[in-house]
Amino acid sequence: MSLASVANEDGNGTVNRVIRMGTRKSQLARIQTDYVAEKLKTLYPDVLLEIVAMSTIGDKILDTALSKIGEKSLFTKELENALERNEVDLVVHSLKDLPTTLPNGFTIGAVLQRESPHDAVVLHPKNSGLTLDTLPDGSVIGTSSLRRAAQLKKKFPHLEFKDIRGNLNTRLKKLDEKEDYAAIILAAAGLKRMGWEARVSQVLGPEDCMYAVGQGALAVEVRARDCDILGMVSTLHHSETVLRCIAERAFLRRLEGGCSVPVAVNTEVKDSVLSLTGAVYSLDGADSLKEAMETSVDSGNKVEESADIQHVGVTAHNVPQCAQVAAEKLGVDLADLLLSKGAMEILTTARKLNDAR
Fold first, then answer.
1. Which parts of the sequence belong to the Porphobilinogen deaminase C-terminal domain (predicted)?
2. Mean pLDDT across the stretch 233-253?
3. Are residues 100 and 233 in the same domain?
């Protein structure tokens, strides 16, 4: 039992374990953590859960685009520090915030079933009924994501794109209360979790805007040595989401991408075949490389020994190892294909131009 886990004895002499869950302070982060807590409470009714909220670098620096801050663990570092100091037992993240290489001693012990990974358009009320296609020339679209901006600049050249920072509440307030933006682009999953689906005027499919690695999925990060906590949270794994996200994270890690480069993906599992489409873009979207590959993730009737093997940071005992290996290889192979066609030159230029902005 870690220091963060406290045993309480109730009046009947029963020892109830308290497990401390770390989270960011934003409303969305709390909603996501409460969702994971409810799942755990249903599975382990005797466990007492305590939520510990804290601010991260990404929450504190609100006047700079994420891609300019140059820190890969913007929304995770303080949470991981608390995990390392045994102040919490597990941390709930949006998977897309977690770097593809985790600090030593940590692992992703659960990847929950993914919400929609797509991006959504939220219009200023005065533009109700319009789409990105029908917005007037020169309309300003708010997004701090290089990935979104690169794809949408190419697809909708009549629009302008400007940075917008802050949590979901802040960004919606900036949109509604000022005339600076005609629309903003947000993750559909976050809007749904906040109960704001009515604000979504358009969901962007992969033909318009492919999504970020891990987008729409929640991850539970734990200390790799805490076998009991790892075993507990592993029941939350969703096999298909695990395989899709392993492929996506392997693709991004091979490309050495992060917030500061435009990398996008699209994945699907159908009839035990995992397909991955991946792309890299120049900042203006004019230069891009996009390819697709697929692999079988059918484990047949193989019985496998449970293994503490991480695949791009994920430990999933209840997902067949052979399928995880195939998913990781798919991501690496697709990245290698793009690299052989000049992806590194596009990404290096994008990184330099972004640093110079």
1. 243-297
2. 97
3. yes
